[in-house]
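User: I would dearly like some help making sense of a protein record. This is the protein in question:
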Amino acid sequence: MAILDELRRERGMAMLLITHDLELAAATCDRLAVMYAGRIVETQAAGALTATPRHPYTSGLMLSRPSIDEVVHRLPVIPGRPLAAFEADDGCAFAPRCAHARPYCADGRPAVVELEGARVACTRAGELTLQGES
């Protein structure tokens, strides 16, 4: 990653990194986009996304990461089964696994809203206070 980052800087280029490693992404990227079932659910500056996630899925991902600062016997998990992109219907694909879901979440694909520098696809994004990294 250090070599790629050096080449990127020397040549004034951009780099798109696709990974499941949020720590790596946050350390090497300016902005992060989180996807669920083939859809982008949140986009935010890397530091802001890890500190203040705006989508319930992003929050669940951040909370389920192991920490080097504390010993836990069991990591929190997001309940339910992840959906593949072809399984997602017109409603919120994450709703069946979301603790914050309401019946109207199934009424259509959530619009992307701008919220304090974040772009979030969640009908409840403006009213939720979610946890990120500690």
Observations:
- Residues 30-121 form one domain.
- The helical segments are 2-11, 22-28, 46-51, 56-63.
- Strands lie at 31-36, 39-45, 112-115, 118-121.
- The longest strand covers residues 39-45.
